[in-house]
UniProtKB/TrEMBL annotation:
It comes from Candidatus Hamiltonella defensa. CDD domains: HTH_LacI, PBP1_LacI-like. Keywords: DNA-binding, Repressor, Transcription, Transcription regulation. This is DNA-binding transcriptional regulator CytR. The keyword Transmembrane does not apply. PANTHER family: HTH-TYPE TRANSCRIPTIONAL REPRESSOR CYTR, LACI-RELATED TRANSCRIPTIONAL REPRESSOR. Signal peptide: none annotated.
Amino acid sequence: MSTMKKIAAIAGVSTATVSRAFKSPEKVSVSTRDKVEKAVTNAGYYSNALFRNIKRTESRTILVCVPNFGETFFDDIIKGITEIALKKDYQVLINDSAQNKGRLNPFTIARQIAGIVFLGSNFPLNLTEASRQYLPPIVMVNEFISQFNLPTVHIDNLAASFNATNYLHYKLGHRRIACIAGIESHLFCQNRLQGYIQALHRSNIPLQKNYIIKSDFGYGAGAQSFKKLMALPKPPTAIFCHNDLLAAGAIYQAKKQGIAVPNDVSIMGFDDLKLSEYIDPALTTVSTPRHKMGEKAAEILLAYLDEHKIAKRSYLLESSLLVRESTGYLKKPEFGIRN
């Protein structure tokens, strides 16, 4: 049975209707077109012939896929994308990848979207080899995933974490340095953890596995992780957190337990979210150029759409360490537990 016949059988329509749904969608009712496209998506039939038959419309819409609407990290990236897109008369459509994982229809995207920006690896549509070559141009931000061979705007998370951990040791004198790590499946979290580990090895500081707490991203995870670390027989004198929310949660828990930051323990974050300036004490953190990342991603995408300029695979932007009040010199050789 041919692919067209299989799709027709699944959708409960004729092969002629399947053909019309792709070649002349305006001649097919919305409900019938949805049946056909769902049949294709559910069955995984992404053949070259089907995609070639799609009738594309002239689009000036950029789809930005956000891993989680609740994370303020992405706000500045979206602003950067939007500002560049609007200057070129493109509109921006935001998609919540967490809510729509696997639900976006590749055929709808191929017809109605000019280009896509993924702000993480939580893809809301299936990127098969067959479908990708007929989808609009794609640019990634924040996570570099080599197997997809997509142009990506990101920072060197490993180097940034290495430098942050080195600062805690060489500049401030800490040796008992813990790490509250983010979501393990995220490549940038793996790189941040590796940067921390490599910095310890370079400084001949033994790696203590109980100093690494793997958690989620969020205030609560930071607070609980801090509590676990402070309950150790020899708790750390400094903690490197994979993002500012974790660090803010750790500072909250420190106050709750009567532990002074930074006098008793130094706490460092990552990302330089707006809140990092306003918590008490103000947070030392790694600043990521999120607005510039968004601008660069939009520039790469629009350069291809408007001028057909081929992008390279990796665009590394510089991060920097912002020293504020939550980190300080090691003052006590031994730090006892406070209840």
